[in-house]
Amino acid sequence: MGWGQGHPCERPAHSVWVGAFLIARTPVTNEEFSRAIAHALGRPSWLRVPPLALRTLLGSELADTALLNGQRVVPARALAAGFRFQFGEVNEAVANALSEA
Predict the structure, then answer these.
(1) DSSP 3-state assignment of 55?
(2) Is 64 domain-assigned?
(3) Where in the sequence is the domain holding 95, given as residue range(s)?
(4) Which listed residue, 29, 31, 33, 77, has the most CB atoms within 10 A of its CB?
(5) What are the Cα distances from residue 94, in Å, to 38, 45, 87?
(6) How confident is the model over 37-77, as pLDDT tens digits?
(7) From CA 34, how far away is CA 90, in angstroms rounded?
(8) Which of 55, 83, 86 is nearest to 68 (CA)?
(9) Mean pLDDT for the chain?
């Protein structure tokens, strides 16, 4: 089921389009997100990719901008529009997303 077709993450009463897979009420780090995925899958989360390997494979600018420094996206417009998030914590959202996959 695609967006605009009754997707459970849509809130048609608001003019701000927000996808649950794009933002969260509270930003989390990649480490926290990785731990949530590992927890939902019942697997350990201990493997880290060295920054030098990412910079070598992707180039310094892309690796630093997209992966190493983070984005810290805050959903200010969505919250101001009254958007209600279905899940309050990253662990709940990831567990739900993976249970439906």
Answers:
(1) helix
(2) yes
(3) 30-71+88-100
(4) 33
(5) 10, 15, 9
(6) 899 999 998 888 899 999 999 999 988 887 788 777 788 88
(7) 10
(8) 55
(9) 76
What is the C-alpha separation between 43 and 41, in angstroms, rounded? 5
Of the pLDDT bands very low, low, confident and very high (cuts 50, 70, 90), residue 22 is low
The rounded distance, in Å, linking the Cα atoms of 10 and 82 is: 13
How many domains does the chain contain in total?
Answer: 1
Which ranges in 1-101 belong to alpha helices (H)? 30-41, 51-58, 60-62, 76-80, 90-100
Q: Do the Cβ atoms of 33 and 24 come closer than 8 Å?
A: no
The conformation of residue 62, written as its DSSP 8-state character, comes to: H
What is the average per-residue pLDDT within 4-13?
45
Give which of 24, 17, 22, 23 is closest to 3, Cα–Cα: 17
Q: What pLDDT sits at residue 7?
A: 46
Residue 5 within a domain: no
Model pLDDT, residue 11? 42
Alpha carbons 6 and 85: distance in angstroms, whole number: 16
